[in-house]
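debug: dumping io for the single-chain case to check the tokenizer round-trip. Nothing else runs in this session.
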Amino acid sequence: MRSALACLVSMAAVLTLSLPANAKEVVGWVENAKVYPGGVTIRAKIDSGAKTSSLNCQCITPVKRDGKEWVSFSVKNQKGEITMIEKPIDRIAKIKRHFGELQERYVVKLGVCLGSVYREEDVTLVDRSGFNYPLLVGRNFLQGDFLIDTGNTYVNKPSCKNAPRQ
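debug: decoded output
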């Protein structure tokens, strides 16, 4: 039985190495990701059930910049270091929670690097401090580029060549 399993694992490795260049990137159900500005590395739960990505933020404060609505917020990396970010508010989303209640959240455009894919993405800001993963990556970000291996974690390190330089 073990030799058959070892054979299957070896075949899967060979098949993975011979994928075409335009193949989808495989990610586990939990990955490390980087959020920009700041290049903050945080743990991310991959959630194809969520449409929009969401980020755990503390001190979410609306501010005015040149007559426009912005939001100031802090993001904590895996070492507990805090980065302050200010971004224009794109919109306010109404999110239906598990118990049917609606919650309003600020939506900002943030850069996200997952594996080798970087893109600017709408992200809702919310206090997720009660959750294990500060970033929830939704299907809007995943669409077209990823396959999720639900039995695996930390498959890819964030390594985006087109991410902003820090």
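debug: round-trip ok. The chain has a mean pLDDT of 87.
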